[in-house]
């Protein structure tokens, strides 16, 4: 970099704004930016043009705070000698989009790829927060491979209700059990939910939003300490300013996602996910990001590199606290510092700070041991995702950090058969079928039953539904049985506290094993061998395969059909098939 912050090489944006060979087109490209007061001198100055991919809007309340934060991002970009251009990205609001926001992650990805590729950006600030806003943005940045940096919006402040911490989502799952058991009224249910959302920001539990932003930081794609700062804290605005500044420097230093998003970085992210008790949605999202980055990541890496990592963060749903306390305890850097000291992190990886991860983590030891445990004295040993396979699926995961002592005692601790459970399957075809029949007394579900849901994967729903954390029948809840073993080809919310076996691939709608199970079959789960099978003989399974696959609802929008025609399974990240063929496409597009 030169002293006046001028780049030493020709920038991508100059092919639009300062191209002597194409005076006519340059005039055309330049003129309309003038109508909001930009000057030709600015755009022709050779200063880096930095996009701000704005994910906040009234439709995405979790990210809406970015509309304010963007002002500080702009200040940072200007102060570092760049020019900001803010633009909207496709909204992704987890709680409200039907049939599911998962349907739109690939749409947002494709939209952002077209914007970053087709417009005159030299770098981009990715504003993230609500669950899929983070992976979709990083997937796009990986494909286009222009300098990029993540600015998360931060979690809401801690929620309190009746003197107890109430966390996003987790309060819903816990209250719905109390409601079904007749312990609270509808109004009390609503009050607890509203109290869990006390300020601007995304979910304050370690749900998918906090998880994916922690992972962006663990990958080295945001400034150190970014993920955990609550949205309402003054540090959040300061982080926005620093992130804007750094975006310009990334362009000048030509640091690109392809330098950072390596296999080693993704393995670090998997380890961090275990230590924070992160969302099961991290599995498809990390796989999708790795595919678009061209990093060699395999489904079994979750078991090989993530399972043995202990749970260090005492944050809901696996623990007790929420985002504010986690931030004050040291946040993601303090978790990573523990892993680094224990030799469980590759500290040599480069990051957007320009320094290595180990350099970023210098002196970042936790300040509150109630919330961030030492590696040697964790909340739980071996707290990562357990990878399972068998005749029901080739791949599924189980989040071990939320297996309660009660659940373990009930299902996984039979003397001489530890880790093994056999139970009768009750099969539901999608969530409507589940809701219609779960309390039917004719269905003799008891505490030895396994609940199975299918038709909930990327093809089946479509988009894949967060439904596998099925609640037991009300009559069992009233007896204090709060969870049964559950299996499904859908997902579950990152805020759920259920040790479901989920993300099963291939899904029923793709002809996976779940398509052929029947209510009454016995399922055998064996955590020692990592297998999960229906105990049905081969000839009977072959006979059932003569039947057709359980039906799924028709596509109701053009995108639903295109999505179904192109999507891969959750094991592979539910990406757009073939999209990973397009790698590092940042070269300048042809002019028209
Ligand atoms: Fe948007 Fe949780 S619903 S962050
Ligand atoms: Mg969610």
UniProtKB/TrEMBL annotation:
Q: What is its EC number?
A: 4.2.1.-
Q: Which Gene3D superfamilies match?
A: IlvD/EDD C-terminal domain-like
GO molecular function per UniProt: lyase activity
Under Pfam families, the record lists: ILV_EDD_C, ILVD_EDD_N
The record, for InterPro entries, names: Dihydro-acid_dehy_C, ILV_EDD_C, ILV_EDD_N, IlvD/EDD_N, Sugar_Degrad_Dehydratases
Outline the extent of the Dihydroxy-acid/6-phosphogluconate dehydratase C-terminal domain: 370-574
Q: Identify the domain of life.
A: Bacteria
Q: Which residues form a coiled coil?
A: none
For whether the record's keyword set contains RNA-binding, the answer is no
**Record domain Dihydroxy-acid/6-phosphogluconate dehydratase N-terminal: where:** 47-360
**What keywords does the record list, in alphabetical order?**
Iron, Iron-sulfur, Lyase, Metal-binding
Q: Which PANTHER family has this protein been placed in?
A: HYPOTHETICAL DIHYDROXY-ACID DEHYDRATASE (EUROFUNG)-RELATED (PTHR43183:SF1), HYPOTHETICAL DIHYDROXYACID DEHYDRATASE (EUROFUNG)-RELATED (PTHR43183)
Q: Which family does it belong to?
A: Belongs to the IlvD/Edd family.
What's this protein's name? IlvD/Edd family dehydratase
Source organism per entry reads Paracoccus aurantius
């Amino acid at each position: 970099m030169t002293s006046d912050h001028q780049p030493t090489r020709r920038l991508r944006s100059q092919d639009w704004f300062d191209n002597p060979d194409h005076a006519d087109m340059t005039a055309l490209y330049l003129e309309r930016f003038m109508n909001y007061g930009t000057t030709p001198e600015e755009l022709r100055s050779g200063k880096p043009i930095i996009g701000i991919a704005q994910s906040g809007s009234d439709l995405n309340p979790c990210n809406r705070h970015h509309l304010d934060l963007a002002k500080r991002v702009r200040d940072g970009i200007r102060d570092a000698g760049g020019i900001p251009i803010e633009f909207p990205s496709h909204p992704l609001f987890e709680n409200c989009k039907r049939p599911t926001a998962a349907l739109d992650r690939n749409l947002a990805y494709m939209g952002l790829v077209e914007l970053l590729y087709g417009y005159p950006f030299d770098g981009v600030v990715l504003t993230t927060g609500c669950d899929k806003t983070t992976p979709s943005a990083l997937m796009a940045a990986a494909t286009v491979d222009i300098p990029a940096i993540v600015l998360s919006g931060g979690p809401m402040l801690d929620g309190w209700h009746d003197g107890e911490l109430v966390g996003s989502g987790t309060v819903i799952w816990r209250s719905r059990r109390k409601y079904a058991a007749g312990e609270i009224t509808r109004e009390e249910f609503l009050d607890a939910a509203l109290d869990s959302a006390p300020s601007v920001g995304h979910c304050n539990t370690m749900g998918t939003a906090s998880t994916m932003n922690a992972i962006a930081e663990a990958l080295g794609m945001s400034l150190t300490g970014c993920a955990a700062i609550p949205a309402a804290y003054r540090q959040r605005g300061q982080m926005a300013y620093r992130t804007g500044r750094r975006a310009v420097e990334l362009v000048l230093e030509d640091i690109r996602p392809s330098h950072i998003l390596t296999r080693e970085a993704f393995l670090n992210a998997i380890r961090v996910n275990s230590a924070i008790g992160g969302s099961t949605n991290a599995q498809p999202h990390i796989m999708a990001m790795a595919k678009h980055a061209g990093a060699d990541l395999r489904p079994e890496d979750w078991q090989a590199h993530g399972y043995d990592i202990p749970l260090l963060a005492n944050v809901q749903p696996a623990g007790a606290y929420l985002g504010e306390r986690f931030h004050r305890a040291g946040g993601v850097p303090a978790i990573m510092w523990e892993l680094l000291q224990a030799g469980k992190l590759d500290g040599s990886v480069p990051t957007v700070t320009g320094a290595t991860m180990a350099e970023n983590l210098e002196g970042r030891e936790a300040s509150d041991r109630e919330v961030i445990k030492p590696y040697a004295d964790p909340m739980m040993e071996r707290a990562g995702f357990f990878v399972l396979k068998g005749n029901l699926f080739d791949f599924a995961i189980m989040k071990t950090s939320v297996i309660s002592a009660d659940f373990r005692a009930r299902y996984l601790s039979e003397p001489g058969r530890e880790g093994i459970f056999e139970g009768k399957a009750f099969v539901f075809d999608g969530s409507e079928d589940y809701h219609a029949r779960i309390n039917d007394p004719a269905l003799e579900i008891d505490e030895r039953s396994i609940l199975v849901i299918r038709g909930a994967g990327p093809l089946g729903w479509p988009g894949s539904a967060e439904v596998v954390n099925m609640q037991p029948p009300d009559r069992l809840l009233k007896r204090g049985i709060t969870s049964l073993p559950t299996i499904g080809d859908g997902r579950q919310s990152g805020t759920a506290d259920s040790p479901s076996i989920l993300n099963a691939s291939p899904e029923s709608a793709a002809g996976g094993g779940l398509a052929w199970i029947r209510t009454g079959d016995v399922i055998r789960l064996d955590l020692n061998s990592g297998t999960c099978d229906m105990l049905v003989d081969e000839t009977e399974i072959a006979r059932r395969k003569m039947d057709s696959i359980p039906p799924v609802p028709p596509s109701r929008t053009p995108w639903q059909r295109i999505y179904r025609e192109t999507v891969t399974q959750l094991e592979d990240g539910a990406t757009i098939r073939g999209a990973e063929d397009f790698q590092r496409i940042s070269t300048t597009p042809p002019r028209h």
